[in-house]
Amino acid sequence: MDKNTRICIIGGGPAGLSAGMYLEKKGYENYTILERLDRVGGKCWSPHYNGRRYEMGAIMGVPSYYAVHDVEEFCGITHDGPQLNRNYKNAKGEVIEPFEPKKNVLKIPRLLKMKNQIKKFGELLETKYKGYDLNGHRGVAEGRYDGFSQQNAKRERVSGVNPNLKDLCLPFKVFCEKNGVELIQDVWIGPYTSFGYGYFDEIPAAYVLKYLDFQTTMNFVKVNLWTWKNGTQYIWEQLNEHLKNPARLNSNIEKVERRDGKVFVTVNGEVEEYDKVIVTAPLHIPNKRADGQRGMDEYFDVREDEAKLFSKIDYERYDVLAVETKPEDHPEISYYVFDNMVPEKLGHLMVYYRRWKDTKDQVITTYSLRKHKDSKEIPYETCKKMVLDDLKTMHNPASNVVNEWSVYYFPHVFSEDYAAGWYDKVEAMQDKYDTFYAGEIMSFGDMDETAEYSRELVERFF
Amino acid sequence: MKFYKDHYDVIVIGGALAGLSSALMLADKGKSVLVLERHNLPGGIATSFVRGGIEIEAALHEMMSIGEKSNRLKVGKFLDDMGVDIDWLKVPEAYHASFPGVEVTLHPGFETFAKEIDAVVPGTYDKVLAVLSLCHTVFDSVNELSIHPMSKPMMLLKHEAFVKTAGYSTKEVLDTFRLPKAALDLLAPYWIYVGTGFSELPFTIFAVLMADYIGYGSYIPKKLSHEMSLKMAERAEAMGVQIEYRQHVEKILVRGGRVYGVRTARGDEIYADYVISAAYPNKVYTSMIEPLSEVPEKAIKMVNGRRLSLSAFSVIMILDKSAEELGIKDYSIFRGDSADTDKHYDDLKTLGPYKYITCICHNLANPGVTPEGTCSFSITTLPRVDGWKTVRAEDYDRVKHEVAKQLIDDMSEYFGVDLLDHVLEIVIETPMTIAHYTGMWNGCIYGYAHTMSDHIVARLQTAEEEHFIEGLEFAGAHQISGDGMGPAVTNGRKAAKNVLDAMAGKGAAK
After folding, report:
1. Which residues lie closer than 8 Å to B408 by C-beta, 6 or more apart?
2. Distance CA B103, CA B120 (A)
3. What's the CA gap between A12 and A39, in Å, rounded?
4. Most buried by CB count within 10 Å: which residue of A279, A370, B265, B359?
5. How far is B404 from chain A (nearest CA, A)?
6. pLDDT digit string (tens) for A43-82?
7. How far is residue A287's CA from residue A52's CA, in Å, rounded to a whole number?
8. Rg of chain A on CA atoms, in Å
9. What DSSP assignment string belongs to A253-292?
10. With an 8 Å Cβ cutoff, is A92 touching chain B?
11. Which of B401, B405, B423 lies at the smallest CB-CB distance from A112?
12. Rg over CA atoms, chain B
């Protein structure tokens, strides 16, 4: 492609900014990043509180976040945040140690079985499911893999046929049962469901395992995690500052029209002309399952095939509260509440996060899901009340809510559409309308997977 | 074809060691016998289970009364005679005693045993040997008298030692030897196998226990206790016994003071002249006899007058290292914070902590019992059922964890290795587990407590009076020979003998 190609990138989150970075690295400098909000970072949102930043969105990374590591190198920053640590409580608010056999010897048989299943699962992923952890979903539904595999610094393109990969279309719970490793869900659920990515009985295994590949999960188990002192938003602020063309904030896109081999974008009343557009903003087209989110069709000249595919996208409803507590009610550490990570406890507090070890003068953030495939969506206010009540049960009542965010979170498709080749159909449309589709839906809703997808997109098409 | 015959000579309730011994002996005499077992396998707690592909012993520590092939004792001989061919392995030592300040492994054989104690407490050889000799004399008398009852004057004449010691507790008799405490302590460990502190334990029981175990050593079946159960059942069936599994007898049918059959949970009424019950008399007289009006008041008084003895709490583990690597040197370890049996017996009334525990490392008598580089190790305490009856459902898991953890921690400290770091498989048995799987009354595996007021000699003499219902016999730990897998066989034989005697028109069960 011509290096002078005029490229419009919609969205100044990790996907959009890293698309800019990789384009720039490859010599494409004629790109424009349009961001609707007055900040960059998207779901990496780190507001200020008493001189420090806390996290309303993404909190952490792991050492296998290779694309994020690229960004850090590009900007000369590093993960310098507070060490993460957590304990566990049951639904009654009692501290428990579910993975410590010595605290309850009656749990040992299950833990031993789990340990064996994790080992077995690790082996299965290496062999039976070879190719499972590549970024993106190309070919999975057809039993193929094609993409970059990265181990440490070594990154190489691999591709091949592996019919077993079709199993990844199954809901994760079914996938585990099919492989006789149902107990591994006890470990995978912690960084999955409580982080807003839905329930194992509804989400295809592909999503779970592309995010929580074996190595990443083991990093979570060992609490081998990265954080950033100034918040995850800071990574993208830094990237934005280091880009030749920083994102244009407060850019309200009213219209995108694709005609005559050009892309016409109306921004804050002005029409701008581009050759290509990379969409990292939600591709979603509203259907009954996700009312309320602004649809792509409200500003895009959506084509029939786009409309057909993008209306299949579903979202989680993930709520985050930032609360103050009285000093005596302040939790001593972050807590996971496994009891509340089941669909039957929809809307309840699943995890709450205390960021700094050295002060009680900080906000605590709470996390809850209120949508599940087979359940009635819980209204926002009801869920908020449930979470505040749960904090009381946990003996850490909130005295004040200082910030709240109800996020359209983790776009994904369900097993049936996944198995019907949704991703291959979308991948086949790349560049069809001078449009490239990127962002969370194309890989997975975490900053590294989206940044990685942008890297590959640039490598494949530019 | 009908499931059951119209009539049997004898119906045996319970297909564990006692019931199967009864069945073998009766079949050997040509009687038609039906065994009804509620589980889907024979053996009761003489069983094993599989975890992670490894077969694990559920209960047996060691068998008494087996003896070497050339010189079998009563249980070994009976099984040989019945054609039940068990692959017996001899347990190398008697036990390792671990009390504060003492760590010693003692071996069977009176002289060896006395010599080994003398090495720890010099100058005690003669006295210890004298204790053991007295035990042996009493043991011989008991064996003879159980087959040939005789009048009291004759007994005094022919079995003087037995008669003279019968009225005394173990403590009273041992005190007469004026042994140093340290030597007495080393004679104490096996007390837990009969389950009463020395102040209350009739010397007769102690004597039989010591003579049998120390005199002749102990044995285990190579294929675990279930080898006995399976081979006895197989042999019984070959001898014409009908064994039906998963048949739970709910009622024992009685008319005019005489048994005439049983009814199962499935609703089958099956008829027989005699019934041998492995179910506890407590259960039989309070809920199984139909109609209950056939139960004489004396029977209720008898069961109420007896004290239930011990159940078991075991932590059974497969460890990921060999016994040698973990520093486990003995098949059997008895460990206590003292050798004060009366105090320990009192502790067993509680829910712990238990300060007297017994451990078995099966590999040290049965090397191939687990895969190479692993070993099977169990830690057991034998709590009294009265304590465990008080555990509420909501506290059960907590109590189970606490007791298991205490036992594991205690032995971890002993070996200087955290055993929990080496667990490949773990199973924890409580009195409730036993009650659940075997239907045993309150999970009581020890029958009725041996005490000076409920003495074996007295029981022998009142045995006839305890035939409250004609044609009904009992076989199990609740009978004369008491607890243990060896005594279970003897109890089963005794029940069969009573039936045979009655059939021949003599004895109690007319």
Report:
1. A105, B315, B379, B419, B420
2. 9
3. 8
4. B359
5. 7
6. 999 999 999 999 999 999 999 899 999 999 999 999 999 9
7. 40
8. 22
9. EEEEEEETTEEEEEETTEEEEESEEEE-S------GGGTT
10. no
11. B423
12. 22
Closest CA–CA distance from residue B439 to any residue of chain A (Å): 23
pLDDT computed for residue B510 by the predictor: 42
Tell me: cis bond preceding B383? Omega within 30 of 0 counts.
no
Q: Which residue of B has its CA nearest to A107?
A: B401
Out of B315, B420, B425, the one facing A101 most closely (by C-beta) is: B420
Could you tell me if A365 and A54 are in contact, meaning their C-beta atoms sit under 8 angstroms apart? yes
Residues across chain A:
462
Q: Is A109 on the interface with B (CB under 8 A)?
A: yes
Calpha distance A445→A207 (Å, rounded): 9
Taking contacts as CB-CB distances below 8 angstroms, the residues of chain B near A101 are: 420, 423
H or E segment and range at residue B273:
strand B269-277
For residue B199, give the DSSP letter. T
Q: Does residue A102 sit at the B interface (CB-CB below 8 Å)?
A: yes
For A449, other C-beta atoms within 10 Å of its C-beta total 23
Kind plus residue range of the DSSP H or E element containing A95: strand A95-96
Backbone angles phi, psi at B89, to 5 degrees: -115, 135
Q: What is the ipTM of this complex?
A: 0.75
Record: contact A106-B423, CB cut-off 8 A: no
C-alpha distance from A205 to closest chain B C-alpha (Å): 28
Quote the pTM value. 0.81
Residue segments in chain B with a per-residue pLDDT below the cut of 50: 508-510
Q: Residue A400: what pLDDT? A: 96
> Among candidates A367, A364, A368, which has minimal Cα distance to A397?
A364
| Buried b or exposed e, range B97-128, using 16+ CB within 10 angstroms | bbbeeeeebbebbbeebbebbbebbeebbebb
Rounded distance, CA B284 to CA B293, Å? 13
- Best mutation target among A97, A102, A106 (most B Cβ atoms within 10 Å) is A106
- Do the Cβ atoms of A112 and B427 come within 8 Å? no
Beta bridge partners of A159: A146
Inter-chain touch B401–A101, beta carbons under 8 Å = no
Query: Could you tell me whether strands B54-57 and B102-106 are parallel, antiparallel, or unpaired per DSSP bridges?
Result: unpaired
Closest CA to B77 of B143, B135, B155: B143
Give the CB-side neighbour count of residue A347, counting CA atoms within 13 A.
15
Helices and strands (H, E) in chain B, number of each type: 19, 19
Question: Hey, are the CB atoms on A106 and B427 less than 8 Å from each other?
Answer: no
CA distances from A369 to A216, A377, B98, B187 (A): 23, 9, 57, 66
Angle, vertex CA A109, rays to CA A103 and CA A115, nearest 5: 90
Q: Which residues of A touch B400 (CB under 8 A)?
A: 106
* pLDDT beyond 50 at A334: yes
CB contact under 8 A, B425 and A112: yes
End-to-end CA distance of chain B: give it in Å, rounded: 33
Pairwise CB contact (< 8 Å): B397 & A106: yes
- Cβ atoms of A165 and A145 closer than 8 Å: yes
Q: Are A112 and B426 in contact (CB < 8 Å)?
A: yes
Within 8 A of B397 by CB-CB distance, chain A residues are 106
Q: How far apart are CA B408 and CA B414, in angstroms?
A: 10
Mean pLDDT computed over every residue of chain B: 94
CA B456/CA B490 separation, integer angstroms:
14
